[in-house]
C-alpha cells in the first residue's frame, strides 16, 4: 500500500498565509546548511510535491522550477565556517530564521503561521508549530524541503568544480567512501566543517604532516 502523501491538513488549522520551513544539509562534512520557507499559492499548487528525499533528482528539479514560478519563497544559507562557530543545531536554526526573514521581504508581510519540520523552533517572533517528519505530512513543508534540497545540491555542484577530489558532484558533501578517502589523501579544504569529527581528524593529520621536520607525518 502506498504511503500517505503530504496534505494541507495542518495549513487549514492555521491563520493564513501559512509558511512551511525545512532545511537540507545538517549531516554533510562540507558545504552550507540551507533552509527554505515557502508559502504555497491558493490555487495551482503543483502536483507531485512530496518529501524531497522520496523524489528523484529530475522530479525535484521539475517541482523546484514550478514552485519558484508560483509560490513565495525565502532561502537562508549558513556556510561551513559559521557552522563550526555556532554548531550545526544553531546554524540550522539561523538558516531557518534567515529563510523566513527572506520570505517576509518577498511577501511584504509576515506569515500568519509557520510550520517547521522537526521538534524544535528557532528563537524568533513568528507564530509557529514544529511538526516531526513534517516533510511527509505538510504540503508546505514538503515544498520547502524540495527548494532547500535543490538549492543546496546546486551549490555543491558548483563547489565540485573547484574541488574535484571529493566527489561532491555525487555525494554533495556527505561522508561517502570516496569523500572520506579524499579527506585522508588530500586533507580538508576551506569548505569543510572542521568541527565534524572526520574533518577534524583529517585536519589534525594534515597539520601534523606540515609541521614534521621531514615533511612526513609518520612516526
Order of helices and strands: EEHEHHEEHHHH
Number of helices, where a helix is a run of at least 4 consecutive DSSP H or I residues:
7
Topology-level CATH name of the largest domain: Nucleotidyltransferase, domain 5
Number of domains: 2
Looking at CATH, the homologous superfamily of the largest domain is: Ribonuclease H-like superfamily/Ribonuclease H
Low-pLDDT residue intervals, each spanning 5 or more residues: 209-219
| Cα distance spanning the termini | 58 Å
The global form is: globular
What is the CATH architecture assignment of the largest domain? Answer: 2-Layer Sandwich
Whole-number radius of gyration? 19 Å
Largest β sheet strand count, sense and barrel closure: 5 strands, mixed
Structural class: alpha/beta
Amino acid at each position: 500500500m502506498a504511503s500517505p502523501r503530504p496534505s494541507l491538513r495542518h495549513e487549514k488549522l492555521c491563520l493564513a498565509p501559512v509558511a512551511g520551513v525545512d532545511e537540507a544539509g545538517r549531516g554533510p562534512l562540507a558545504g552550507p546548511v540551507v533552509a527554505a520557507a515557502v508559502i504555497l499559492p491558493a490555487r495551482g499548487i503543483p502536483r507531485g510535491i512530496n518529501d524531497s528525499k522520496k523524489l528523484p533528482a529530475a522530479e525535484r528539479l521539475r517541482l523546484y522550477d514550478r514552485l519558484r514560478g508560483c509560490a513565495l519563497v525565502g532561502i537562508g544559507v549558513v556556510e561551513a565556517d559559521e557552522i563550526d562557530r555556532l554548531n550545526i543545531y544553531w546554524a540550522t536554526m539561523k538558516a531557518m530564521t534567515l529563510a523566513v526573514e527572506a520570505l517576509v521581504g518577498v511577501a511584504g508581510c509576515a506569515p500568519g503561521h509557520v510550520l517547521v519540520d522537526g521538534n524544535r523552533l528557532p528563537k524568533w517572533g513568528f507564530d509557529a508549530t514544529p511538526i516531526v517528519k513534517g516533510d511527509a505530512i505538510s504540503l508546505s513543508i514538503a515544498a520547502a524541503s524540495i527548494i532547500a534540497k535543490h538549492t543546496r545540491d546546486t551549490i555543491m555542484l558548483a563547489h565540485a568544480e573547484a574541488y574535484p577530489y571529493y566527489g561532491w558532484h555525487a555525494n554533495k558533501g556527505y561522508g561517502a567512501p570516496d569523500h572520506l578517502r579524499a579527506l585522508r589523501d588530500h586533507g580538508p579544504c576551506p569548505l569543510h566543517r572542521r568541527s565534524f569529527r572526520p574533518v577534524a581528524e583529517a585536519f589534525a593529520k594534515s597539520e601534523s604532516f606540515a609541521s614534521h621536520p621531514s615533511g612526513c607525518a609518520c612516526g
